[in-house]
Amino acid sequence: MRLRPAVAPLVAAMTSLALAACSSAPAYNPPKIAAPARFKEVAGWTEAAPHDDAPRGDWWSVYQDPALDALEQQALTASPTLAAALARYDQARAAARESEAALYPTVGIEGAAARARVSRNRPLTNGSAVTYDNYVGGGGVDYEIDLWGRVRASVAAGKADAQASQADLASARLSLQAAVADAYFRLRGLDAQASLLASSVDAFGRAYDLTQRRHGGGIASGIDVNRAATVLGNARALVSAIASQRAATEHELAALTGAVASQFALSPAPGDMIVPAIPAATPSQLLERRPDIAAAERRMFAANVRIGVARAAFYPSLNLGAAGGWQSTGAALLSAPSTFWALGPLSAALTLFDGGKRKAQVRLSHAQYEEEAANYRETVLAAFRQVEDAAASIRHLAQQAEAQQDAARAAERTSDIALSRYRDGASDYLEVVTAQTDALTAQRSLISVQTQRMQASIALVKAMGGPA
Predict the structure, then answer these.
(1) pTM to 2 decimals?
(2) 161: pLDDT confidence band, cut at 50, 70 and 90?
(3) Strand (E) positions, 28-150?
(4) Coiled-coil segments, which residues (predicted)?
């Protein structure tokens, strides 16, 4: 099909008008948020790659726990939360591609074949009926001339939305990984509590047997027996409470990893929880690493260019069309005498009165930009706060763990001494009960602090947008 006579002037017109096109969007000036030179809670921060889209890698491997490694991999492949975030990203990419299609002409082809008879009594007739064939084949081009930048602004906004959705996906992935690690170490903390309580129940049971023997021999009173039974009963009750918490945490892990709770189980594995060293980025690099900050900035940019889309409605829309092909009443369709073409129409449309609708749309787009700008500032400030919180927790919890370790050791020694004194008849059983209760409380507190330290290290990784 030869359409060169029609296409050449159309392309020339498009090119000249595109070169003259302008943008109605205001200049993009994102709010400036001054980053501090360093975080106040921890000195000696290390350098990091300042890219929000940089691969985070298997950051949880620093904990050197094969069970955690397996759970993280399972979550990345089976989590419905992550699957939903990926689907939203795919939607945003498709929407951006749909907007981008408006930058190009719409080209179509058509063909038709008909046999018709016209009436002999038609107006302006020569008094005879005519029967004829009509064959048509050809195509057309339609193009909106983006003189005021409306289409380009819509495309830019769509791309920014897709980029924001991509950052949302990265943020969802990091949040899921952190949630899995947090729940896992809470589970291991409960395992340590259960192991401690099992040992305590065994020890308290032996102490209870001792008081009963002494009571049977007339050495101890019934009060001593009841006190021993109280301590033993309280410990057994705590065993059930910890078991309930562990079951709920295990079910939480099942949901995070996309597993059915009734088919998911993790064997108890009590043991020491060692907090690894987590290097961190500088405050200025944090602004470039956090995917949620990147998403907020891209949405702010999209809202800015949509102001241009709203402003462009005050100017006329221009459309240029062209068509060409062949038309014949016989078999000689594809022949030079059967060709036709048309350049145009070049149409323009301008709304003169709409009751203030366009002005309202401009005000709406400005307000939406201000909202996104405020969201961006809030996200940045929250990021700084979260890093400071996590860093402070790591530092203070380390000090607390050291003091709690000393307290637990001292309480355990006191419990041993009190029980020895009771056997020797140097004290009553109230001293033993008090010492045993204090020792159990101190040891449980130490496990709790160790668990919190693991959680704080995970929170720091999440707050930084991934490891440095």
Answers:
(1) 0.81
(2) very high
(3) 106-118, 130-145
(4) 359-414
